[in-house]
Amino acid sequence: xxxxxxxxxxxxxxxxxxxxxxxxxxxxxxxxxxxxxxxxxxxxxxxxxxxxxxxxxxxxxxxxxxxxxxxxxxxxxxxxxxxxxxxxxxxxxxxxxxxxxxxxxxxxxxxxxxxxxxxxxxxxxxxxxxxxxxxxxxxxxxxxxxxxxxxxxxxxxxxxxxxxxxxxxxxxxxxxxxxxxxxxxxxxxxxxxxxxxxxx
Amino acid sequence: xxxxxxxxxxxxxxxxxxxxxxxxxxxxxxxxxxxxxxxxxxxxxxxxxxxxxxxxxxxxxxxxxxxxxxxxxxxxxxxxxxxxxxxxxxxxxxxxxxxxxxxxxxxxxxxxxxxxxxxxxxxxxxxxxxxxxxxxxxxxxxxxxxxxxxxxxxxxxxxxxxxxxxxxxxxxxxxxxxxxxxxxxxxxxxxxxxxxxxxxxxxxxxxxxxxxxxxxxxxxxxxxxxxxxxxxxxxxxxxxxxxxxxxxxxxxxxxxxxxxxxxxxxxxxxxxxxxxxxxxxxxxxxxxxxxxxxxxxxxxxxxxxxxxxxxxxxxxxxxxxxxxxxxxxxxxxxxxxxxxxxxxxxxxxxxxxxxxxxxxxxxxxxxxxxxxxxxxxxxxxxxxxxxxxxxxxxxxxxxxxxxxxxxxxxxxxxxxxxxxxxxxxxxxxxxxxxxxxxxxxxxxxxxxxxxxxxxxxxxxxxxxxxxxxxxxxxxxxxxxxxxxxxxxxxxxxxxxxxxxxxxxxxxxxxxxxxxxxxxxxxxxxxxxxxxxxxxxxxxxxxxxxxxxxxxxxxxxxxxxxxxxxxxxxxxxxxxxxxxxxxxxxxxxxxxxxxxxxxxxxxxxxxxxxxxxxxxxxxxxxxxxxxxxxxxxxxxxxxxxxxxxxxxxxxxxxxxxxxxxxxxxxxxxxxxxxxxxxxxxxxxxxxxxxxxxxxxxxxxxxxxxxxxxxxxxxxxxxxxxxxxxxxxxxxxxxxxxxxxxxxxxxxxxxxxxxxxxxxxxxxxxxxxxxxxxxxxxxxxxxxxxxxxxxxxxx
Lengths: 200, 793
Hints:
Chain A is of the alpha+beta class. Chain A has seven helices and ten strands. Chain A has one domain: Alpha-Beta Plaits. In chain A, the strands form four sheets. A four-stranded mixed beta sheet of chain A has the order 8-1-10-9, covered by helices on one side. In chain A, strands 2-3 form a two-stranded antiparallel sheet. In chain A, strands 4-5 form a two-stranded antiparallel ribbon. Chain A is globular, with a radius of gyration of 16 Å. Among the domains of chain B are: about 135-200 and about 410-505 and about 530-575, Rossmann fold (3-Layer(aba) Sandwich); about 220-395 and about 615-630, Dimethylsulfoxide Reductase, domain 2, CATH 3.40.228.10; about 650-785, Beta Barrel (Barwin-like endoglucanases). The radius of gyration of chain B is 26 Å and the shape is globular. In chain B, about 30% of the residues lie in helices and about 15% in strands. The two termini of chain B are about 25 Å apart. Chain B is built from 27 helices and 29 strands. Chains A and B meet through helix 1, strand 2, strand 3, helix 4 and helix 5 of A and strand 1, helix 2, helix 3, strand 4 and helix 4 of B.
């Protein structure tokens, strides 16, 4: 496989403006009630010593995607050329097993009952544009690229490779209490997981 | 504790009904988009990544050959915050239909970045809520029955009525309500001046209150030099939501990453507060008490810059005596901020050099508005941060007033007689006109209709503003609209107040016109037409020009030619509109070099009053303000309680134990507009009130529940947004809710009791509802919150 593509998500720079979410919907003409990208909001502490952070999350194009493995119709695949996880909606049977298997709640379902999700803007990038979410972000909280390149950027930004059994293709810089970058992203993700499940 | 910021709507729809819901809404959305556009049926199959917003990607799409239809890209400005210079965009037009936007990297305002609103523009433009043609009311006021009329008929009707009233009641019987500042605002001033009325109805709660207080204290507004500072105080401001792509977010994040210390002063933890090192969770409307206590600390502990105070300020010794009583312990029960924190923040601010204050609109919503702003200006001055790199830079928005050349607003025609006719002066007559021109307080115009004091305004033109949701005292405003002789609404979409209009004027969205040119910060750029107008429209600019001609003011209105109007305005730049348009990213000017410590020059700036006497009679910072004193106002800032508060009216706490106030900016809406846009409504589906978990729990309220918020004057039914970033004694709502969203099956809301209108919750007739100098209107009251008996699904 050529180089895997992925995201860098810098929660320290996310100001919860939801521009990425709406830009994504507009770029892909996504139906009402469905979002491929969500802003997850996380509170810690109690008044007045409160920390509030957010992270913008979509499909993380895992290196070992649980959705691919579990799909009974072989509708989900990992592209050899860039590692993107894509769905063939002609083959999808709408069983939602992928949704149950995904640790990040990425698969979404609209009126036709078939799975839909982030494709890292394959068409936009073919036309020389950045993914819609990355291009619009007022805080430069989102980046994308080949994982090798992203690793260099991550080192500069003190971001960490997101750990997980599916090896998500993402670097994450999180800030928790007092706005200080956290070395241990475990608590955030543990807090994140139940809400990610709640999404659709 | 976890919450998902857009999860509320989902929680309300159980799994079984959810599917049906989506099928229905998606079809409604797609169908309406197609019907309005009149686009070819193939439009929904436009390329693999294309498709209309709201149209489902279906399986068929993938197997059809990708047919890339004719696509064009139009460089222009976003208009989702309203018609004004702003973020540069590339509008994408496919098969004649506006389908999307990309940020313009070359535009220095946004550098390619865009907010959520920008991307939803096509849904707004093609909304069923668009006005389509001019309307004349045929039913009773408030009934909502209209007939279609022609533009000629509409303009003739308005002109005939205004001429009649001018003869019978005098030109001052006409008032024009101001929206937020728009690039058509000067046209409204021009029209009023040509007509002979001073009654430009400025909100009394936005920007000019800051400009006024800073000008009369420091000789000018200030700009925080965030790039070079060591300490940034964000005070009563929302830099993140108020135009997130316009640079404020980037500047804030850069400051943060450089290690600039950030203090945020406001009642709730918003995303910018989350970036701060210190949060001062001040009770709404009590910033003046906090600022006075900070002055007490800085003065009492001698933390001020004595050289600057000595040389450039007037009346410091009186301030010393005056602030003795404002101890942090005095301020603690008023502001709800611990005395210790007030000391900490005051010391840190006064001893960190350089420090700057980014102050916002929140100050302009309190009875003690002028006191708070003057106290902040004095803090800036005595701490030695004025006009220093990294401090608060002088020579901002004020002081010009069009001297030297003919002004667009015709202000050279102002006379004392004209000023004297003001119906409810926004600033006392002795201080009129201010930078933009003469002004009456927006709300006061409605009071004049009801009380007929000093005389009743007879006609109101309301462009891009919705008085029934955007100003306080909704009950009075509606009464006044019922009584008013003649009311004209000018807007792009249906408005909350249009059922009371005699004539409704449909203006083009800014995506459907190719004027005016707008500022890009350090240059100008032409606005370009993205699509042909979808209805029988003129622009806001053309409306005023054409009405001017109908009124017989043609000489002042280029005899009806928008081209001549643009030509005149471009003349100083020595460029024509065609030449400007040939540059897709506009033309840039030589950037001004920043000069510091301009005290001599700025402190002698002539004021905008007719006399042009300087703002600062002593040529020094007016700590002790003799101009205020001469006009019967307190020369030093003082603390004034809002009409209702825990310290002003403790007797009310038993029944109404919580402080209530409202937000004026949001991430996806512009004031009272855009709730009809489905992609934006999905982000904030329902009106909410923000509560602390304990405040909620003690009332049996859970996150997402519908609750009743009740004040002495009105009530709201909204959803509980429970998070720990809120004071336990305070609840906050967002103003501007009235509109439904058909595509998402979201109904509209009542404007009064039981609706979702924060502005109906306040008393505008209370003697302490108004700042006596700048007519800022209190947005604080006391409420009770309880779980609603009926929980809508």
